Amino acid sequence: MRQTNQTQVTEFFLLGLSDNPHNQQLLFILFLGVYLVTVVGNLLLMSLVQADSLLHTPMYFFLCNLSLADLCFSTNIVPQALVHLLSRKKVISFTRCAAQLLLFLIFGGTQCALLAVMSYDRYAAICNPLHYPSIMTWRVCAQLAVGSWTSGILVSVVDTSFTLKLPYTGSNSIAHFFCEAPALLSLASTDTWTSEMAIFLMGVVLLLLPVSLILVSYGHIIVTVVRMKSAAGRLKAFSTCGSHLVVVILFYVSGIVTYMTPKSSKEQKKLVSVFYAMVTPMLNPLIYSLRNKDMKGALRKVATRNFPCRLGNCH
Fold first, then answer.
1. DSSP states along 248-273
2. Residue 174 region, left (φ>0) first, then alpha (ψ -120 to 50), else beta?
3. Ramachandran region of residue 16, left (φ > 0), alpha (ψ -120 to 50) or beta?
4. How far apart are CA 53 and CA 178, in angstroms?
5. Any alpha helices (H) in 5-57, and if so which ranges?
6. CA 65, 77, 158, 2: dihedral to nearest 10 degrees?
7. Do the beta carbons of residue 196 and residue 97 sit within 8 Å?
């Protein structure tokens, strides 16, 4: 649907990833499977941490916050994308689009901050093990978690305000499968330089600053681990950081490509968006669970307690 040049757009048409009906059916099946794994995986991870007292530590506290952000992040995008894959009229109202953009940035920004906080937690645990309990108290953990969510909200409000204050009176066809700031700015009926610079600066705050903190933390961690005399100690230290480092690389590389590289093509950014909007929230709980002995142990305990006969523990 097109609007006249004098009329503010009241709805957008999402072009999606493909206009081929067969491809849309395949994408629906794929995205539905990914979303179900995302929901089950993140809910299971949070439930295991809640159920096992051995997991009531700062690292798993932050991991639960990350899982919650992942779950909300994916839920804000994927159900709408699934509906549109089966619909002929892929329309979203301006209000719904604004809400999706706001929530997308809140949960995405929170993820950025939490990953940086988790790297600091690993730094404190490995580089200052004797002082770790006094450094990462529950009060500090709560403050860091609240600060992460607050930073996501603040950045989201700024980016959303600079995006939605622009006049949209021309085309209302978004070359994307959800409402994202770069895709919306391309439809604005005026110069977008100020808004683009504001979003870029927020990207620096939300992406590059946390990445810098992560690099500094892991620099200290690597130096400390290399100096360890015990091979078993080095292996244990690296294993506790491996999962987090994999998640950091997956999330930040895709985010930087989208928000910090303006010359990237629309199709490239769209594909990258699929990765961090759908794939990364699914992979996070899998990566942490499969690479973590504590999580595997908690899962076995829960399974043994709830299904003893099936595990051969009947008397």
1. HHHHHHHHHHHHS-TTS-HHHHHHHH
2. beta
3. left
4. 39
5. 21-51
6. 180
7. no
101, containing H or E segment:
helix 94-127
The strand pairing partners of 12, in sequence order, are 92
Beta bridge partners of 91: 13
Closest of 42, 66, 51, 53 to residue 119, by C-alpha: 66
Q: Which two tokens stand for residue 17?
A: 């990833």
For residue 117, the Cα-to-chain-centroid distance in whole angstroms is: 14
DSSP code of residue 310: T
| Residue range 255-314, pLDDT digits in tens | 777 766 655 566 777 788 888 888 888 888 887 765 566 677 777 776 676 655 555 555
3-state secondary structure of 167: coil
Could you give the CA distance from residue 7 to residue 150 in angstroms, rounded to a whole number?
A: 36
For tokens 């950045």, what's the residue? Answer: 155
DSSP string, 117-144: HHHHHHHHHHH-TTTHHHHS-HHHHHHH
